[in-house]
Amino acid sequence: MDPDGIDRRGFLALTGGALICTIAGQEVVADEGKIDVEGLSTQVKVPPKVAAADWRGGEPGIRRLASLGPGGQTREYWIAAEPVEWNIVPTHRDQMTAQKVKYGKTKFAAYGYRAYSAGFKAPLGEASVPGPLIEAEVGDTVVVHFRNKLKAPVTMHPHGIFYANEMDGAYKGKWTDPGGFVQTNRTFTYVWEAQEGTEGTWLYHDHGPMDPLPIFKGLFGPLVIRARGEARPDSEFFLGFHTWDPSITGLKTTYYCVNGKAYAGNTPTLEAHVGQRVAFHVYGVDNFFHTFHLHGHRWKEPDGRIADNKTFGPADSFRVEFTEDNPGRWFYHCHVFQHLHQGMNGWYLVS
Amino acid sequence: MDPDGIDRRGFLALTGGALICTIAGQEVVADEGKIDVEGLSTQVKVPPKVAAADWRGGEPGIRRLASLGPGGQTREYWIAAEPVEWNIVPTHRDQMTAQKVKYGKTKFAAYGYRAYSAGFKAPLGEASVPGPLIEAEVGDTVVVHFRNKLKAPVTMHPHGIFYANEMDGAYKGKWTDPGGFVQTNRTFTYVWEAQEGTEGTWLYHDHGPMDPLPIFKGLFGPLVIRARGEARPDSEFFLGFHTWDPSITGLKTTYYCVNGKAYAGNTPTLEAHVGQRVAFHVYGVDNFFHTFHLHGHRWKEPDGRIADNKTFGPADSFRVEFTEDNPGRWFYHCHVFQHLHQGMNGWYLVS
Amino acid sequence: MDPDGIDRRGFLALTGGALICTIAGQEVVADEGKIDVEGLSTQVKVPPKVAAADWRGGEPGIRRLASLGPGGQTREYWIAAEPVEWNIVPTHRDQMTAQKVKYGKTKFAAYGYRAYSAGFKAPLGEASVPGPLIEAEVGDTVVVHFRNKLKAPVTMHPHGIFYANEMDGAYKGKWTDPGGFVQTNRTFTYVWEAQEGTEGTWLYHDHGPMDPLPIFKGLFGPLVIRARGEARPDSEFFLGFHTWDPSITGLKTTYYCVNGKAYAGNTPTLEAHVGQRVAFHVYGVDNFFHTFHLHGHRWKEPDGRIADNKTFGPADSFRVEFTEDNPGRWFYHCHVFQHLHQGMNGWYLVS
Fold it and tell me: What DSSP letter does each residue of C16-59 carry, written as one string?
């Protein structure tokens, strides 16, 4: 803008954070069209402990399991990271405003986590955004056999649950453990422990060397740890608030989404009945701050305040619970008006 | 910016959210000068239930009232939405920095809610931003006779208080009830119920088919529900934090405001005395996150923490209470420095 | 962008808040290169009470001290505001991503608060960003002898602690007290009182006539008020989350920082041992909202919720405490991915 001032990238960084990250010394900038995550990833060096690890049989996971004392149940998951063709606005319409969504193509090549049966024998559904729900009760051990079927190294990093250092699924440069850099076609076994004091609604996401690009392409999902023996709500919903950025999708606009979809009629249409105990588990996983607002309802916060709207940031996660008492067709939405109007809204139908 | 990249609107959306909304398929973009809300509104179709409704006598409201059991008091309001010439910086000065505010004209054609005496016989003051305070105690029924005197369909949508589905004042495309699309010169009677568990500081705002444009032009106001028999604070203040955007006002800058005004000496100058029980009721109603900060004072949060600054987002609302113990000339302000310096500050005078 | 629309500054204000403030009628805009704070400051008029004050011997402070009843300890500090050459990324590397930080020069002329021994006899270290920790227990009186060695008027304004009106260190235009406009080479004595109900983690910062520029150049620091006799944690860390803006530094990018530094290996590397009681004191002091996230750990919020990530805004401050139970090399970071990847991350090493 100003020939004597800072350059275009600096300007972008100033005016809204268009510099997403730097990978292997290359800046990834939000307005430069579609980012080639796989291409970039070939320039990232394999960390020494990753190269030296014995990758047969998920050894670190098995060692960790052997070292644990007796506890609750062991909950075992087989999850792969896979490419998935994703349609953000399948109906091409916004039911909130009764109009067509105008930005052309709404499909792109996303990444998703996908659940499999034991031993990766058979998929239990499609790869999806968000990935499968991981559930535990306090006292349980969660074992996730994670296979990377993408052409870039990725991981699984959980929030809230206890994990030993080498189980954090985080890339740490030269200190990276094998679970922080899972290469194409490798399988790593994460062992996480739902110790006392970890109960809550959480999320998991990639935290590998390409972070945040794989997250922005869809690699995140919900995790819930319940108190031991806690009754499950009659209806419960897990809602990830996030954005699809044009630099990631190659599409023409930014979509503000719930669970990968934008605009009412495409985002999850939630259903409940009067008299039910209902829980909304909400988390954020983009660069923005959002609010969770629900029409016609309110709830008690842990501090005793009554609320019908709640601010949260990236990786914040929380649970809203109430007994359903109000039938009808209701909106849930982010109350940042711009986000609401770029897709972050959906229906909650109570009969 | 980049001929091979996304277009200008996409760029704007990326770099700060300049795309406000899409109405009847037309994008409303923040840098395109003054938006013609009335003109745009002629292109929005009247929803079927709205067209078919019997608009004589506020029927839906009367039906709802008849169905309610005996409760507390019925509190009846007559409120109209009206055009109002609004001056954001009447003094053209910022007393915080002792300087002239430089952006030229500070008046524009806003929208305001206006209170009337029973039956809309006489106005009880000017239309204003924010609109009149709506008050109730737990157990009360609030009846709002709402008349639209604007040339675009608008509504009243409350937070916090209980309302049946057809009383939510929200446009819902083809499912819109009459209260969600009140056309020019029509009157709709909203019935809202301050049930147990709705106590708190809330807001109300337009949620009609032109949302968020009428809100950004001034259609919002405070709502408070007190515990039954609760003593009122000795001094209390209702403060809406919001922004006037150039695309709405046609003016040369964005004003960061409290109750429609920008810069100390224009924003409300609040007054209290040592020894008084004081309450600040604060809410946000724009696209931004703010903080409420008060010099020389602090308060206990519901969770027991002591605070002198509090983050809140769009449609968050809360109450800060303390016993006044510190005389002098104090600032209240948003602690986002940019917002503070574009007008979001005011005086609190304690004698 | 649009010749018929608003001008460039208005555009910048819209698209990300590049207008920082207006000083003496001159707009300070974020993309216009390095701001001349000293030059601008010569155009700000000295307020009448400041010009008329007797500046010998910190009179207002001594008067205030004399008026206080007997209490706890008086804790006396000698602190100067000074220029300091500051290196944001001394290693020029980011250990989180194992890569070089590419934006050239990382040094600039910052401002820092610097602690001195009694009577300003000898410095107790370098001027630094943040400034020295100010500590008190409930019941104590904090006396800060503040000397301005910068070429622009600055102040010290505390959060949380009690202070009488003339001790707030805030510029208030024509109502400014001497403590709100401390000119070059002058010394002002602030008296602040850690009354009952002020306990917590807080911050202090400049709030003089050039605000927020001196803050953005480094004039802020931590303040903690403990309960009387409260045991200190075994390890505790004070972490200010903030940004260095190119308009302030003259450097080529925005750095998202913790305690003045950007990128793991440059930001504070924190250390603790298993079994220790650990406290993180966190505050924000820029235009942005952040989150505090710590890998491998979680804590109980005052409302009873368990969290491993917490949203906070400018001037919010809080304390996270837990007993250390998890050895290893961990990250702490802001979970806004863009901030994380522009430097807001660091190491927490547990042995």
Answer: H--EEEEETTEEEETTSS---HHHHHTTSPPPHHHHHS--GGGH
| pLDDT at position A331 over 60 | yes
pLDDT for B17 beyond 70: no
Q: What is the pLDDT of residues A233-253, one digit of tens each?
A: 999 999 999 999 988 999 988
Sign of CA dihedral B243, B244, B247, B248: positive
CA distance A85 to A154: 18
SS3 breakdown of chain C: % helix, strand, coil, rounded to 5? Answer: 15, 40, 45
Q: Give the ipTM.
A: 0.94
pLDDT (mean) for B203-215: 97
Q: pLDDT band for position A89 (50/70/90)? A: very high
The mean of the pLDDT values for chain C is 92
DSSP letters, A269-301, are -EEE-TT-EEEEEEEE-SSS-EEEEETT--EE-
Alpha carbon distance A16, A14 (integer Å): 6
The one-letter amino acid code at B243 reads T
In this structure, the number of other CB atoms found within 10 A of the CB of residue B26 comes to: 13
Residues paired with residue B191 on neighbouring β-strands, in sequence order: B143
Question: Which residues in chain B are contacts of C165 at CB distance < 8 A?
Answer: 296, 326-330
Spatial contact of C346 and C280, defined as CB atoms under 8 Å apart? no
Q: How far is B44 from chain A (nearest CA, A)?
A: 9
**Looking at residue B313, what is its pLDDT?**
98
Q: pTM, whole model, 2 decimals?
A: 0.95
Q: Cβ–Cβ of A5/C32 closer than 8 Å?
A: yes
Q: How confident is the model at residue C65 (pLDDT cuts 50, 70, 90)?
A: confident
> Chain B window 90-109: which residues touch C at a Cβ cutoff of 8 Å?
94-100, 102
Superfamily of domain A48-350: Cupredoxins -  blue copper proteins (2.60.40.420)
> Across residues B280-302, what is the average pLDDT?
98
- Whether B287 and chain C come into contact, CB under 8 Å, resolves to no
**Candidates A33, A102, A290; nearest CB to B22:** A102
Chains with at least 3 CB pairs less than 8 angstroms from chain C: A, B
Is residue B232 within 8 A of residue B226, CB to CB? The reply is yes
User: Residue B301, class by beta-carbon neighbours within 10 Å (0-12 exposed, 13-18 middle, 19+ buried)?
Assistant: middle
SS3 state of residue C190: strand
Six-digit token string for B306: 């002591």
Cβ under 8 Å to B: C residues 223-282: none
Q: Where in chain B is the domain with CATH 2.60.40.420?
A: 48-350
3-state secondary structure of C337: helix
C345, containing H or E segment: strand C345-350
Lowest model confidence (mean pLDDT) among A271-275, C237-241, C249-253:
C249-253
Residue of B nearest to A17 (CA): B15
**Cα gap A18→A77, rounded to integer Å:** 36
Longest CA pairwise span in chain C (Å):
66
Q: Name the CA dihedral angle for C281, C284, C290, C296, rounded to a multiple of 10 degrees.
A: -10
Q: Which range is least confidently modeled, B65-69, C121-125, C249-253, C269-273? A: B65-69
Give whole-number Cα distances, A256 to A16, A241, B239, in Å. 16, 8, 29
Asked if B114 and B83 count as a contact pair (C-beta separation under 8 A), the reply is no
What are the helix (H) ranges across A187-264? 213-216, 246-249
In three-state secondary structure terms, C145 is: strand
Q: Quick one: which of A185, A148, A150, A200 has its CA closest to A169?
A: A148
Count of beta carbons in the 10 Å neighbourhood of residue A184: 15
